[in-house]
Amino acid sequence: MGIQGMELCAVAVVILLFIAVLKQFGILEPISVEDGGDAEVELSTVRHQPEGLEQLLAQTKFTKKELQSLYRGFKNECPSGLVDEDTFKLIYSQFFPQGDASTYAHFLFDAFDADHNGALCFQDFVVGLSVLLRGTVHQKLKWAFNLYDINKDGYITKEEMLEIMKSIYDMMGRCTHPTLRDSAPAEHVELFFQKMDRNGDGVVTFEEFLETCQKDDDIMSSMQIFENVI
């Protein structure tokens, strides 16, 4: 993805990279017709017991077999049932050896850590994955807005967006061409607000974010690409 327009296409980055992290964990493995039996649901065998299968079926748009397969991969890689932020950052950094992905990984981890207890459980993973892969456009954009709204007050400020943009540039590192000026993140924040801050009050609400993104063909197409990943 090119650096131009990143302030809008970061939604696609979130989806792509989260899928990459899950694959690194071994969570997104092919679903075999034999999946079932012993996974029914071994959800009580880990030290951190996740929600029951029926509740996860209600919370997500995955089928029973998909949840069983996802859980098998999660349990194999995370036998404790939990992933802390340091582990998440370590895995994430493997995809960006040319840059520093730690800050962006922190923001992404925080977005998935729904109860903000400092650890991701299986429920956090599948609920987030369900939104990104199977959710409505509104749900996906709400999730992305929450990522950018660092202090969760319902508004994206220029200061918050600058932190996000700096973290993206840090993560991309030397793979950006041409080499970026130090002022590039701030310039992209200004472009972001020119597009998103429709009433010019200095903050972006979810309604403004939603309206602008829905009019952007690149973002709308990115919402459809990953729906059949599993």
Q: Biggest sheet: strands side by side, in what order?
A: 1-2
Can you give the helix content as a percent range? Answer: 55-70%
Structural class: mainly alpha
Secondary-structure element sequence?
A: HHHEHHEHHEHHEHH
The DSSP helix count reads 11
- Number of strand elements: 4
Biggest β-sheet strands, sense, barrel: 2 strands, antiparallel
* Proportion of residues in extended strands: 5-15%
C-alpha geometry: globular
GO molecular function, one term: potassium channel activity
Keywords: Calcium, Cell membrane, Ion channel, Ion transport, Membrane, Metal-binding, Potassium, Potassium channel, Potassium transport, Repeat, Transport, Voltage-gated channel
Pfam family, one: EF-hand_7
Protein name: Calsenilin
Please, could you describe this protein's structure?
The chain is mostly helical. The protein contains 11 helices and 4 strands, in the order αααβααβααβααβαα.
Write the layout of secondary structure elements.
Layout lengths: L5 H20 L27 H7 L4 H14 L4 E3 H9 L8 H11 L6 E3 H13 L2 H12 L6 E3 H15 L11 H13 L6 E3 H9 L2 H9 L5
Antiparallel strand pairs: 1-2, 3-4
Helix pairs in contact: 1-11, 4-5, 5-7, 5-8, 7-10, 8-9
Summarize this entry quickly:
One of its GO terms (cellular component) is plasma membrane. The chain has 230 residues and is mainly alpha-helical.
List the keywords:
globular, single chain, 5% strand, two-stranded antiparallel ribbon, Calsenilin, 230 residues, mainly alpha
